Structures are given as structure tokens and as C-alpha cells.
Amino acid sequence: MLTIGVVADTHVPDRISAVPAGAFEIFRQQNVAAILHAGDLSDPRILDDFAAIAPVYAVRGNRDIWRRTGRELPLKRVLEFEGVIIGMTHGHGGLGGYLWEKVLYYTVGFSTERVLRNLATHFPADTDIIVFGHTHRPVIRRRNGQLFFNPGSLGPLYNFARGPLVGLLQIEAGNARAELLRVNL
Length: 185
Known about the structure:
Elements: E1 2-7, H1 21-29, E2 34-37, H2 46-51, E3 56-58, H3 68-71, E4 76-81, E5 84-89, H4 94-107, H5 112-120, E6 129-131, E7 139-143, E8 146-150, E9 165-172, E10 175-182
Parallel strand pairs: 1-2, 2-3, 5-6, 6-8
Antiparallel strand pairs: 1-9, 4-5, 7-8, 9-10
């Protein structure tokens, strides 16, 4: 079995001062083969801390535009691990998508289903898993044969009482399972 660590919305240092040590501890204990960061790092130097554990693949979030190294991250990626195709994006859809979602949020409210429908349009139909962030809301949901996975926020939690979260993807024999783990502070 291959285990991949998944994290999003760390927001270091603009909303929290550092990645909680418990996140690194979980990824070490789980012996992750790779770490996926679904954007809003805020300071891309935190990728070096994750890279000390396993290779890191990251995408640009809406808060990553303020540093050159953040702007250099791709908006989306497609990766393959043991025959499982993973699409990664932050989920904000660039500036236009971000502004449109804000309009919808303030006029008709938040909708996880709307977010998932939109994310699916950004990747080929044979994408097995879509990893995303942005909403700070953890999601593990199968829809039209695809697994959508948002590990929630490792940084600011807004109105969610679960505490900081990281995710694990476990891949075996072409099948994938997602799990959320609470991070001790």
C-alpha cells in the first residue's frame, strides 16, 4: 500500500505562525511516499519542511500570489501514483473563478455540490481523485466515479470545531481511500 499525505490552507505566516509540528509527526509516522499541498501556503518556504519527509507536489492558491515563488506554482497538476490519476488544484479557479464564487457565496450561499461540479470540469474524466483546498471544509465524497478530497485547513479554521486537519490517501491495487486526521498542537 502507498500512503500519500495531503494538506491545504496552511496560511503561514499570514494567519498562523508555523505549521503545527503534529502535521509533520503524522506524515513521518505514516511513512508517506509523497505530500500533496493543495494551495494557500502563503509562504512557499514551508514546502522545504514537508520535503524533509517526502517529495512534495504543490499548487497555487489565491493567497500564494504575493510572493514570486508562490506565483510560480501551477494552478493545477495531474499526477499518477500506482495507476491512480490524481488531479490537484486549490479550487479557487484563478482570479475570475474566485470573484464569481464570492458573488455566489454572498448571494445564494455556499454549496459543496456546486464546488465539486466546478472542480470536475477542470480535469479529464479519467481522473480518479481530485484533491483541493480553498473552502477550509473537509470533504471526502465520491461523485460520478471520482473521489473528491479536501483535507480541510491546517491553518485557520474559521467556524469548524474539528481543529487542524491533514489527510491521507492510501492507494492499493488501483484503489484509493481517503482519511482525515486531527493534528495535535
